[in-house]
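Predict the 3D structure for this chain.
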Amino acid sequence: MSEPAKPWGGPLAGLRVIDLTRVLAGPLAAQFLGDLGAEILKVEPPGKGDETRGFAPFVGGESHYFLGLNRGKRSLVLDLRKPEGADILRRLVATADVLVENFRPGVMERLGLGAEALMALNPRLIYCAISGFGMTGPLRDKPSFDIVTQALTGVLSVNGEPGHPPAKLGLPIGDMSGGIFGAIAILSALHERTTTGRGRLIDVSLYDGTMSLLGYLSQLAFLSGEDPRPMGSAHPSVVPYDGFPARDGTIIIACLADGFWPKLCNALGCSEMGADPRYATMALRREHRAEIEPRIAAITATRTVAEWRRLLEQHDVPHAPVLGVTAALSHPHAAAREMVVEVEHPAAGPLRMLGRPIKFPGERQAPLEPPPMLGQHTVEVLRRELGLTEEQVEKLRGLGVIHGPAA
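Done. Predicted structure below.
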């Protein structure tokens, strides 16, 4: 009997990424690369490691926040402020493919570990710097977090209900934009390297990434000269595209194409509105928003969410209930798409995590691994990659350069 085929490592199998990041944007970028098969060596400072390891609540002593952004990585604790620690990083970089860091501009240079110095050691190195505002511009040296980014890019101003103070998005879109665009940039540089044989410095900022997501809202501002207004769940151009009241909650209805409008009206039991020429196109419905939306709301309020789901599904109208995060994670489609997986964590035990967002039909990728404990792989990596002896490891441990479990 033939043995079952080994799982596929992923399209980035064999690539090594040095992850010097912490908190959210950088760890997310590196995690995406790990999902695609790259080996991620997460280098953390002595003491508490990545700041998010201290973010409550905890399971088995491990932070929920850290667990959500660092699956499948190898954790090394190195004190880069000590010459011996900086030397170990240089030796690891010499054979690495990618380095990602999200310090403020200038921090790595002050450590003697900036892009120019490290790329001189390894010309094939792709060095990705992720920061709040980027390497240039008047805000270059300012600290930034997600809510600051949302405020300065206009995103915060368009979120919330009309007539109320602006509200930040529940998802940290500013930080996440840095992670997403950081991963895209690295992948593009890896492709370029196949032709040039050389690496590249990448400058990714949360500010640029978040502003780029303004999309059509930026064009509204350019064309009108006015600020787009917060509209709750409604859409500035599409009607109906909103949450509507049901007897026991809210039902989302989204008619982002004219063909859905008569279908919706049939489902609502008001086919005459679907045939009304005043509402025939998206542009006309936008003009008559004040007439259309209250009429829909009055009808949807007469039935439950479950009843509307059945009716709207029968008429092929895009719709959804408003699920809480727990319900979303337990949805049958999330299970079918393997967006929730279970791993065994050495401290937290059985641990449910998000799965890979990118699928490759026809391939069975290796199971995801749990996020690492602080310094869990320090000794393993130093022995495997640098060939350090037990005596050398213990000397570094005694100097406070490294931290991690004994072999």
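The two ends are 37 Å apart (CA to CA).
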